[in-house]
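writing this on my phone so excuse typos. first protein, seq and then structure
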Amino acid sequence: MLTLEDVWKIYRIGNLEVHALKEVNFEVDEGEFIVVLGPSGSGKTTLLNIIGGIDTPSRGKVFFRNTDVTALDEEGLTLHRRENIGFVFQFFNLIPTLTAKENILLASELVENPRDVDEVLEIVGLKDRAEHFPSELSGGEQQRVSIARALIKNPPLILADKPTGNLDFETGKKVLKYMKGICISEGITFIVVT
C-alpha cells in the first residue's frame, strides 16, 4: 500500500542544515496498525506530513498504491489527500458551533462516496452524543469525533498525529483501542505517531 524509498527532509536555516528525516525506508501493507515512537523533535510529524502529501521530501520517493506521490502536482496532491487519507490531529480541530454530527458531515462533503454518518458515529461509540457540541463532550469524545470525521471519507489510510497528546493516560489508551479496533474491523490502515 505505502512505500517510502530513501526519504530525506532537510530544513535549511541560513547556513544551518537540520536533518528531520534521513534515509527513511519502509513499507506498510493494507490493514496494518503502525505506531511510530520517538522523542520530541525526531521527525515523526514531518514523516506523517510527507506520507500525507502535506509536505514534500528533500529527496526520495513516496509511493501510495503504486502511485509516486512525490511526482504529483498540487491538484494531484489535493485529490490524493481527499480520496486516500484521513487525518486525526492532537488538537481535535472541531468547529465549536457545529454538533458532533455536523463536524463529521463537513468532511463528507469533500468526497464522492462518503460513509453514512450514523454508521461512523456507531463505530466510535458516539451515536448518543451526535447532537452535542464540542464543549459538551469530554476530551476522549472529541477525539473520537475527530476519528469519525476521518472515517466518514472512507479512506484506506488514516494518519494520526499524537492523537492522545491532549488526553489523560486512561482516556488515551481507550482512544488507541478504538483506533486499533477500527483497523481490525474495517481493514483501514493506521499510522499513529505518539
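second protein below, same order as before
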Amino acid sequence: MLNGLKALFTSGIIFRPMVFSGIIAGFLLSAFLDMEEAFPLFSDLSFYLLSAAWSGLYTLFFNQIYKEHGRGLDYPAMGGRFVGNLLQLMFSGLLAFIFFETLIF
C-alpha cells in the first residue's frame, strides 16, 4: 500500500488536476458518508452530470487543443480529452473513496 502511494508521487500522476480533484472528492465522500450512503450517490445522474461539467470546464478553459497553425480550437480532439479527463476524475474518486473507507474501517 505504501509503495502504491509512493508511485503516485514519483510518477507525477497525483499532480494532474483531474486526478487530484478525484482524490479530494473521494476523501470528502469517505469523511462525510458511509459506504451504504455513498453507493446510491453513484447511481444518481446528477452526480455524473456534475463530474461531466467539472471535466468539461477544465477541458474548455485549461486543457485546450488547437488546430494546426493555432487558428482555432480542435473540438473533436478536445472531446476525446474531455472523456479522458472525465474517466480520470471518476476512477480516481472511486478508488480514493474505497481506499479511505478501507483505512477508516
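The helical segments are 2-11, 17-32, 35-42, 45-62, 75-104. thats all i got for now
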